[in-house]
Write a structure and sequence with these properties.
232 residues, alpha+beta, 7-stranded mixed beta sheet, globular
Length: 232
């Protein structure tokens, strides 16, 4: 009888571990899954525009920055992180925000980031005064699904339908206080977005930011790419 109980508990444990499909957690992301997370980056006093689509090679395949290897974690210019692993190194616990940054040619640590169009910030850089609020030295802060976190966002193992905010803010503010990233409205349509031309036209406009101190400005939102029938 004891042996039977152990066997039953073992089966239940396996079922629970394998039922971590959509929404259960990054550790459950499997090859050929198609998960999504909304991502937004806020610098000092405004959201940065969504970055353009992760680069494609000459054959039209989405690839990791500087390589010809398929990028199973990428974006289509919609402000979403698309998780579509075709190999184990993009699946499971490897599905991190840091890998998304790396595949696009950016970098992210606990205290600094380098992002699209050369925008960069490090703890201690200054946010200018704006909208009647005083400036001050800023720090990186991040939140997931409306909850502030500590540590390195690069190590965060993404979940399906996550809402992820990375922010560089002056004292007294945190990422959670900003609410969800603007791209959250694209999550319901995420499975139908495989190129910039398919981003919903009712997506919220992201303002062009002013020049953040110590950064290269993102002067305009990315233009929609020419539609392609190549493999996403």
């Amino acid at each position: 009888m004891a042996l039977g109980v152990i066997v039953v508990l073992g089966i239940v444990g396996i079922v629970l571990s394998e039922s971590g499909g959509s929404g259960a957690g990054g550790a459950g992301l499997a090859i050929n899954d198609h998960w999504h997370a909304a991502f937004g980056l806020y610098v000092c006093d405004q959201w940065l525009p969504n970055p353009p689509e992760t680069p494609r090679d000459s054959s039209g395949n989405i690839v990791r920055h500087g390589t010809d290897v398929y990028a199973g974690i990428h974006t289509h210019g919609d402000g979403l992180i698309h998780m579509e692993p075709q190999s184990s190194d993009d699946a499971g616990k490897s599905a991190t925000v840091g890998r998304y940054f790396k595949y696009n040619g950016w970098s992210l640590s606990e205290t600094s980031f380098k992002y699209d169009k050369g925008v960069s910030k490090s703890n201690g850089d200054t946010c200018p005064a704006s909208n009647g609020s005083p400036g001050g030295k800023g720090t990186l802060t991040w939140a997931v699904n409306g909850k502030d976190h500590t540590g390195n966002l690069a190590d965060y193992n993404m979940h399906n339908n996550d809402r992820i905010v990375l922010a560089f803010l002056p004292p007294g503010k945190t990422a959670a206080s900003l609410g969800d990233p603007p791209s959250t409205s694209n999550l319901p349509n995420a499975s139908g977005i495989e190129s910039p031309s398919q981003v919903p036209t009712n997506a919220p406009a992201t303002p062009t930011p002013s020049t953040p101190a110590g950064s290269t400005p993102a002067t305009s939102a990315p233009a929609a790419a020419t539609p392609t029938t190549a493999k996403p």
